Amino acid sequence: MSGPIRVVVVDDQPLIRAGFAMVLAAQSDIDVVGEAENGADALRLLAGTKADVVIMDIRMPVMDGVEATRRLSELPDSPKVLVLTTFDTDEDAFAALQAGASGFLLKNTPPEEVVGAIRVVAAGESVVAPRVTRQLLDRFAGKLAPTPRHDERLDLLTTREREVLGLIAEGLSNSEIATRLFIAEATVKTHFGKILTKLDLRDRVQAVIFAYDSGLVAPAG
């Protein structure tokens, strides 16, 4: 992307917001364009401020991060959202992924990893490892639709693309999928790009959730 990455920090604790802003301000390719103390304030801010990435706390008064993420994801050209959580098996982290977040960060994530995650998400990738996404979905399978319905968008995929999507949902990396299917890793990336385009999805996390919701794969057990 051209120009610096525009970031908004949303957290109800002023010290945390200030800490993120200080770390990010030291990066030549990142601009903090706004701060908000809850989800409602974030939505008002983002209505008039263009951002590429939002760092979103989950537990906040007035409007929590899950609801704010859901509302943001419904907007055209919405910013990517990285949610903050305390535990990587938190039910709220799962809910945020379902709501449209591109990943989550633990609150004790080192500053350099936060910066790296922002760059990854701004580039269109997710920052949740495939296996972690799978574990979250399996752990909270009861929160998914009890009877996954066939999504007509699946019919847009070729047999190979369905196969790749299924393996992504099983938690395999691109290199592991390439080994499993006896194809080049670059070919896997090409298939995945087509999957995202055909299904109108943003990243790997959304692809895994789609695979579950559409019934392409089932929760373990």
Automatic annotation (TrEMBL):
**Domain of life of the source:** Bacteria
Q: Is Disulfide bond given among the entry's keywords?
A: no
Q: Which SMART domains match?
A: HTH_LUXR, REC
An example Gene Ontology molecular-function term: DNA binding
GO-annotated biological processes: phosphorelay signal transduction system; regulation of DNA-templated transcription
The protein's matches in Pfam families, at most eight in alphabetical order, are given as:
GerE, Response_reg
Q: Which PANTHER family match?
A: TRANSCRIPTIONAL REGULATORY PROTEIN NARL-RELATED, TWO-COMPONENT RESPONSE REGULATOR
Q: What is this protein called?
A: Response regulator transcription factor
Query: Which species is listed as the source?
Result: Streptomyces spongiae
